[in-house]
Every structure is written in structure tokens, then in C-alpha cells.
Amino acid sequence: MSGLEIPTWDPQTAMLIGAILVEAVLLYVGYGGLERLVGPRLMRVIVGGSKDVQ
Description:
By secondary structure, the protein is mainly α.
């Protein structure tokens, strides 16, 4: 039957997928930290200096 074969993993493919996942996690953490550092200041500038934004 066609299409029911179990795929085999090429080591290079597995390393590429792992590298992409690591890069995604690093970008997620990096942008999250950047948003925490810059976000409040940027919101104060956009809102117009309102003290309500923490």
C-alpha cells in the first residue's frame, strides 16, 4: 500500500529541525525580554506621558 511507509529520519534533517526550534525559543525569549524593557517606555510615549501606564 502506498503512503503507509514509516519515514526514516536523516540526521541532517533532524539537526536542522532542532536548530530551527532552538532559534524560535531564543527569539521568543529575546523579544519577550525586549518587550518588558522597552514596552512601558514606548507606551508612555505613544499614550502621551500618561501616568496610568505601568
